[in-house]
Amino acid sequence: MKVFQSHDITEDHSGAVVTAVWRSVFALFLAMQPASAQINRAKITILQGTELLHQCSRETPPSADGTWNPTLSDVQKFEALLPSMLFERGSRLDVQRVLNQSARQYAGFIRNGRRYLYGSFFPADLTRAAPEWRTKAIAVCDGGPSVFGLEMDFENGTISHLSFNGHA
Question: Which of 110, 112, 136, 148 has the fewest CB atoms within 10 Å, i.e. the most exposed one?
């Protein structure tokens, strides 16, 4: 592993170096946390099929050519990269708060031969009103910024789609 020193990152280097450094720092930080801090399995479900792409008040990624079955390890990779992916997009979301307060549904899709992992985030207390959330996609109408969908290009670990729900 190459260790970068401050003089290694100059204005002559592209943003890719800075991005790689930030991803490494976040991944190391999360790897040092206890497993329970990395992922709260009680708030996560992995669905199969394309049902998750049918949402009520937000845009979703384009149609899929097929699906793949992500594992909990794949979801952990997604959530470990979440802070750096959102930082790159200029998002001001408090990622730790989002992970603590949101239930998440994930599904894997294939588009143009590439694997994507889509996560649908919504307030965890909604699961009490929808106990089927572990087996069926939840479509929340409205909800504002606490309800959003995020797609990661699984091959290169970048956000390929981010969309928040609107307000009523």
Answer: 112
